[in-house]
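> forwarded from #structure-qc
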């Protein structure tokens, strides 16, 4: 390594990829010196630190804040027991307890759990089990997924194939990605009723696609009610009822990817509750460990689990090395119990009102196209692409860490944010857009 490399940032830039980054033109990164509660302590480049509220909750995860004493204790206690064991031929209490808890809090028919390393892997497993299910039922040609435009399901190949074909940059991987079936994006807006004309038109297109490709489709996969990294886009629960009906009519499995929306973020514990229906397969991740360690889960119904188990191969063909990592399971259990021990829905509602009130003035700004809030998620959409370094810097000067993408400046704060923290976040976002939008 060259002698001239002296700052942490320079050393980082030579060595490390960051999400969606270039090694020849690396974007600036800030060094984290510490984090506690809702605040990050960032190196200020002059030997000191600057504090910022993490308005991103480390990408949806850190719902109880950093250095949470309950989660810290759970992690340490498990580390004192054992940190990891293989899950092949062995089991442990943290995994069993977590599985029981997940089955207890997710929609009733979901009774079986596959614990894995990351959200993307849980989507891989969900797609795999859907394909195995169809094979087990003698539907060998059903190897594709039906989804909608604007979705995001992760960066490994199967999830990428069901991400929005444009945002997901399918063109870079032509020939390597499974060609899935994409319907139109559901019409925007959470409050659309079942008989809304645009929603009916969308349902008609989905219904045609389902009928046209029914012999090829294994399942339908969507992020219920809120598309996340594909565009921070809320849509009506009535659309999910349409998809449930299509799945039932044609024998597709309905997969809900609640990796972002799970654990209260949209105002219900799981977003499917808004629609009053159950998926056949559910993926959860992100906030499952309160942001402490990577872990995700795929849950499914007994019909799915038993059909696959009794089908060719006799097993679900997946088994990662770090499956059901005990540290992750222990901290996930502590995080879920901490969430359930509080009036979390009141907290999410409180944050929601704070975001709505605080972001409302942003709609008057010339650079702003739309402001939308769903649960503890606040989004300001600009009329053009965000100048990422300027916007980040402008928000940081106002004491808030945000990570905009495309034309979106948004926040999904930790649930422990006070009203004052939420006001700081919303005024920083508004101020930053005024300055750099
Ligand atoms: N699905 C959704 C809805 C997500 O938001 C994400 C992560 N942004 C993923 C899947 C992938 O999860 P991971 O990054 O843990 O692989």
């Amino acid at each position: 390594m060259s002698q001239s490399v002296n700052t942490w940032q320079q050393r980082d830039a030579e060595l490390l990829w960051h999400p969606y980054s270039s090694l020849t033109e690396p974007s600036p990164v800030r060094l984290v010196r510490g984090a506690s509660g809702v605040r990050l302590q960032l190196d200020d480049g002059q030997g000191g630190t600057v504090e910022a509220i993490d308005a991103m909750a480390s990408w949806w995860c850190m719902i109880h804040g950093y250095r949470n004493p309950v989660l810290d204790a759970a992690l340490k206690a498990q580390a004192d027991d054992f940190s990891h064991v293989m899950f092949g031929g062995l089991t442990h209490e943290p995994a069993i307890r977590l599985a029981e808890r997940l089955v207890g809090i997710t929609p009733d028919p979901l009774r079986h759990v596959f614990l894995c390393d990351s959200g993307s892997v849980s989507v891989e497993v969900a797609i795999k089990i859907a394909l195995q299910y169809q094979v087990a039922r003698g539907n060998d040609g059903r190897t594709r997924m039906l989804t909608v435009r604007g979705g995001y399901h992760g960066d490994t190949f199967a999830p990428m194939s069901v991400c929005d074909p444009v945002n997901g940059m399918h063109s870079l991987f032509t020939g390597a990605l499974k060609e899935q079936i994409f319907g139109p994006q559901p019409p925007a807006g959470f409050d659309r009723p079942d008989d809304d004309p645009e929603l009916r038109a969308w349902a008609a297109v989905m219904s045609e696609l389902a009928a046209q490709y029914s012999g090829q489709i294994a399942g339908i996969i969507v992020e219920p009610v809120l598309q996340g990294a594909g565009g921070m886009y809320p849509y009506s629960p009535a659309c999910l009822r349409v998809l449930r009906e299509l799945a039932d009519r044609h024998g597709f499995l309905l997969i809900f990817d609640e990796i972002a929306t799970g654990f209260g973020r949209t105002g219900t514990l799981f977003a499917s509750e808004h629609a009053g229906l159950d998926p056949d397969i559910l993926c959860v991740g992100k906030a499952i460990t309160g942001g402490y360690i990577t872990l995700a889960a795929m849950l499914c119904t007994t019909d799915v689990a038993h059909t696959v188990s009794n089908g060719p191969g006799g097993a679900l063909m997946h088994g990662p090395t770090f499956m059901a990592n005990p540290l992750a399971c222990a901290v996930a259990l502590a995080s879920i119990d901490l969430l359930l021990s509080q009036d979390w829905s009141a907290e999410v509602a409180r944050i929601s009102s704070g975001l709505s009130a605080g972001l409302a003035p942003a709609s008057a700004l010339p650079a702003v196209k739309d402001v939308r809030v769903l649960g503890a998620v606040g989004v300001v959409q600009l009329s053009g692409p965000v100048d990422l370094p300027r916007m980040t810097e402008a928000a940081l000067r106002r004491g808030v860490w945000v990570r905009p993408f495309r034309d979106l400046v948004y926040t999904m704060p930790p649930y422990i944010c006070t009203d004052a923290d939420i006001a700081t976040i919303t005024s920083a976002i508004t101020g930053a857009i005024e300055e750099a939008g």
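QC bot note: Confidence is low (pLDDT under 50) at residues 1-5. The two ends are 39 Å apart (CA to CA).
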